[in-house]
Please model this.
Amino acid sequence: MAFSVTPDLVTGNDMIDSQHRELFKAINEFQDACKNKQGNERVSATMKFLVDYTAKHFGDEERLQQQSNYPDQINHKKLHEEFKSLVNDLSKQQQASEASFVVLTQLSNALGNWFMNHIMREDKKVAAHIRNQG
Model:
C-alpha cells in the first residue's frame, strides 16, 4: 500500500506538509525495498533514513509547538515518542534479520497507517493552532 499526502492530510503548514511527504516517501521506499527483496543494504539504507528523518521531523514539529505555546504539546510529544519507538523497533528487527521481508512490509504498513491517523487527528490541530496565533 503506497502512502501519500492526500488533500485530507494537508495541514496547511508548508514545513510540516513537506516533511510529511518525505516521511511517506521513505515509508514507501522501505516497503518497495522489502516487497522487491532488494537486499539488506537497500532495506537498511531506507530504514536509516526513516529513523533519522522521523527524529528530525518530530523535533521540528515540537519546536513549532513550543514557539506557539500549543496547549497539548506534552501529549503530542508522547505520541511522537511512541512512533519513534515503533520505528526504532522495526529498525532493530531489520538489522538483526529477525523478520522476513513480508513481516517488515506489514510493519511498515502499520507505521504508515499510524502516521496517517496521527496527521489527521493531531497534526492538523497543531497547524490550526499555529495559524490562529497569526
Summary: Residues 40 and 97 are 9 Å apart (CA to CA).
